[in-house]
Amino acid sequence: MNDKIFDYCLRIGDSSLILSHRIGEYCSKAPILEEDLAITNVGLDLLGQAESFLNYAAELKGNTTADELTFKRKEKDFRCLHLVQTPNIDFAFILTRQFLIDCYHQTLFNQLINSQDERISGISKKAIKEINYHLKRSTEWILRLGLGTDHSNQRLQNAVNELWMYTDELFIDNETDIKMDKLNIGPLSSSLKNPWEQLVTSTLRSASIEVPEANLYSLQYGKNGFHTEYLGYILAEMQHLPLLYPDASW
What we know:
Layout: H1 2-25, H2 33-61, H3 66-71, H4 91-112, H5 118-146, H6 150-163, H7 175-182, H8 193-206, H9 230-238, H10 240-244
Helix pairs in contact: 1-2, 1-7, 2-5, 4-5, 4-6, 4-8
């Protein structure tokens, strides 16, 4: 059982970790100073959530730490979702990616606060407050850009069109999902699809953005250790110093 809980914690922790790294890449590049501070704080919140889940994963595995799981695992051992690996094309892409993940996190963590695993429940009860803020912020930006100029609407629509294909992975069940559901530790990913779609589509339609047709990106997913071409470059940057100086401490 611990192996499946370990895998589940990696999935949540890795996704938050990689998304926080992507946001870190955007630091000082937002369109206005207030947004630069806001999105940086979102990245820090995600990093804190990643640390909590990876600390728990390290305890379940034994003889390791969250730092080792972060800096010394190979690409195939990561369990992050494909969506969080996508590059920072422009502000519309960054915002859309964040909005889609914020909707997913709110739907997921509202279930996890009732988890039979006390540690996961505790982490989720703390994180849901941050997630609610993240969603409020990204929703406001979706409406602001969608209802702004024709140019801002089109840029946002392009981002939604391009990123939509990555969302199918959010709702695919694997063996870990099935085990977590049976133990009342976490919900089936497939059970999150309807509430997520309602949350996402209502905002997009209010912003005059068309919801794309479903278009599967892949049949092999990040939660199973299969990744996009982007993750290797992220890890090369993130893990460079710890791998070059494995005995260093700070």
